[in-house]
Amino acid sequence: MKFKKAFATLLATALAAASLSGCADSTETGVTGNGADKVYKIGLCQLMQHPALDEATKGFRDKLTELLGEDRVDFDLQNASGDSNTCSTIAKQFVSSGKDLIFANATAALQAAAAATSDIPIVATSITDYATALDIADWTGTTGRNITGTSDLAPLNEQAAMFKELLPDAKKIGLVYCSDESNSKYQINIISTELANLGYETADYSFADSNDVAAVTATACSECDALYIPTDNTAAANADVIVNIATPANIPIIVGEEGNCGNCGIATLSISYYSIGQAAGEMAYDILVNGADPSTMEIKYADGLVKKYVKSRTDAMGITVPEDYEELVTEE
User: Is the pTM of this model over 0.85?
Assistant: First the structure.
């Protein structure tokens, strides 16, 4: 009888301890029994710091915070400083720390996250072409994997047409981009055909990394009438180098996105990176809260594209700008 009483006492103590332990864990993580107060751990990997990617990350964070509430989301923002190997290290750290979702900003960040996990949901942005980035042969609009997101691709045929509208006398267009960025090569392959169809001669001027930007840009400026730069992260990070060479040479540049256009271009057909970041935030919310499957979620594209120009540069070069262009205000 004494044994039964002792056993009952021990069992009651053990159950009480387990109950207290469970409560402590729930308090630590912010999760209640029904999950209504769960704090979501989000790993954000951004390839490098420049205006377009910064705006996309801001849009993502703002939208997810708005939808979840400040107390229910824990962001871990890591910047890879332009290094794909660092992206891989960051992605592996996110996996080992058990993030609920990974936000990948730019192609190298997406590729690193995709290599690091096939289980944790990945929402990407600032990706020009997901099929190219993920080596998907039969593209259907979804990845079929733990990955979805938004694209920064603007219609390249319409960007090519801007040369006719702004630079009708140009003959040769230099296509300046980073050869190490697969989505840059994708854009160049398309726009070179579009420009050829409009009667332009084109030539590729690629750099492997930041060390080659100045020399490649100088060569392009000496051999061409105008330049085109796609949505290229390395070019955007080195816009000051490019503009300091192109401006004295009086070489106009049409650019694939607004942030870099403000830094070194005369015009762009631009998307809002903040908006595609917000759209990615909405997709992340749908995955985290509503249980949406990223493998079946279609990639989203920007709408509301606007032709923009930098007045100080077009005026200095004597370029007549059509009325349907909107002035892009810069910090110059």
Answer: no
